[in-house]
Amino acid sequence: MLELDGTNSCVELPPSLFTNELVTVEGWVKWQDYGSYSRFFQFADARLQLALLNTAGSGTLRFEQYRNPPYDQLVIAGVDNAIRLDEWQHIAVVAGIDHFRLYLNGLLAATDVTPLDWRPDPAPPLKNYLGRSVVKEASIGDSDTDLKGQMTEVRLWAGERSPEQIRANRFLRLTGDEPGLLALWNFHDGTARDASPHGRHGELRGAARVVEAMLPTPQDQLEQNQVVDLDGADSAVELPPGIFDGLTEMTVEGWVKWRRFDEASRVFTFADDRQRAFL
Of these four, 67, 71, 233, 248, which has the most CB atoms within 10 Å of its CB? Predict the structure, then answer.
């Protein structure tokens, strides 16, 4: 897999990377440091100008797209606190002219973008990178740091991969001959060559290197879900009345995490005029 030290290390991909108006980009990535706008990837010399990065030294995962290339009509989407340092995470982005989906560890994380009134001035060069910002090479890009971390099984697909395809195939090692696959950078031969027959070969730059490491497995990867977070101070979820009307028996189940042991703290309380249940 690819290892980047955060200091002038990246993979440079070929120009005119794709002409498709709808693509899916996915791969495994591990941030080892919250850099300043450190990129998983940035494609500037392609039909779609896309980037995926962390935001301003934080764990917020951010998607960027210039919908009127080059470098005009910027739209963004963010997922707060999504990036976990030193953990493998699978990220997939579906992007088109006016279409967007972001998946984190196989789960849909974002679907809406917001316009941002900003464009780089002067315009950066039109290049394609794994682990680097194209803005870094412009006079305004001093604060954009290279990614410090690792990545593997980076895939570029024509069209939209379904949620089922993303979930089912993220742990598989592809051959490169799969239908619809435009490029596969898996670093298995110690280089950044494209393992598909399409020849979109990358070049290791700076201190970028390929190292031996275990590909993430289902046992290593814990699914991330939306949860309700309660602070123990007058916070709760109120359910509608009569939710058990007409039932003679019931089963209640769920996941719960206590952060402290208070007196008689409830997972749930079901109480009405006819029955009461507590846990």
Answer: 71
> How many Å separate Cα 94 from the centre of its chain?
11
What kind and span of H or E run contains 166? helix 163-169
- Is the distance from CB of 112 to CB of 77 less than 8 angstroms? yes
Question: pLDDT tens digits for 215-252?
Answer: 777 876 555 456 787 888 888 898 888 877 878 777 88
Contacts of 210-213 with C-beta under 8 Å, sequence gap 24+, read 210/1, 210/2, 210/3, 211/1, 211/3, 211/150, 213/1, 213/150, 213/152
Distance (Å, whole) CA 119 – CA 161: 30
Burial 159-191 (b: 16+ CB within 10 A, else e): ebbeeeebbebbbeeeeeeeeebbbbbbbeeee
Q: How many C-alpha atoms does 28 have within 13 Å on its Cβ side? A: 25
Q: Which residue has the higher pLDDT, 232 or 193?
A: 193
Residue 84, C-beta contacts closer than 8 angstroms, at least 6 positions apart: 31, 59
Q: What is the mean pLDDT of residues 99-105?
A: 97
- Tally helices (H) and strands (E) across the chain: 1, 18
